[in-house]
Amino acid sequence: MRRIKYPALAAVAAVCFVLMASSATAQVSVQIGAPPDCPYGYYDYPPYACAPYGYYGPEWFVNGVFIGVGPWFHGPANFHGHVDNHFRPDHGYRGPSPAHGERPERDTRHIANFRGNEMRDGRGHVVR
């Protein structure tokens, strides 16, 4: 009886394990809504807060409209644009930033005295 009992218990445990493993399906769903409405663009990392005037160079704007970054990037595949990362909060910037929905106070087509110190590709990657 013992010879049958242990293999039977092992078989029942194996069947339970297989049933549990097959019923556990993992599915990841990421919902990306509309890009943030920011007058001078938004940072290329979540939570995509509005970036201040002077963070992005003029090549990031087409007729004054920001081309996007991250999941909303609408530039060409080989796009590279200048940024001034001194305006990044994780680099120590604590100055004013516009709120979502604010309208631009300055023209983005010719950002006055822009001095970019980093080249980025629109998808959050530094280009060297």
Q: Care to count the β-strands?
A: 4
In sequence order, what are the helices and strands, one letter per element?
HEEEE
Rg from Cα: 25 Å
In terms of DSSP E residues, the strand content is 5-15%
List the helices and strands and how they pair.
Elements: H1 2-23, E1 61-62, E2 65-66, E3 81-83, E4 118-120
Antiparallel strand pairs: 1-2, 3-4
A few lines on this structure:
By secondary structure, the chain is an alpha+beta fold.
Structural account:
- The model has no long low-confidence stretch (mean pLDDT 82).
- Strands 1-2 form a two-stranded antiparallel sheet. A two-stranded antiparallel sheet has the order 3-4.
- The chain contains 1 helix and 4 strands.
- It starts with a helix and ends in an 8-residue tail after the last strand.
- The chain has one domain (35-128).
- Strand 1 and strand 2 form a beta hairpin.
- It is α+β, with helices and mostly antiparallel strands and 128 residues long.
- It is elongated.
- The longest helix has 22 residues, at 2-23.
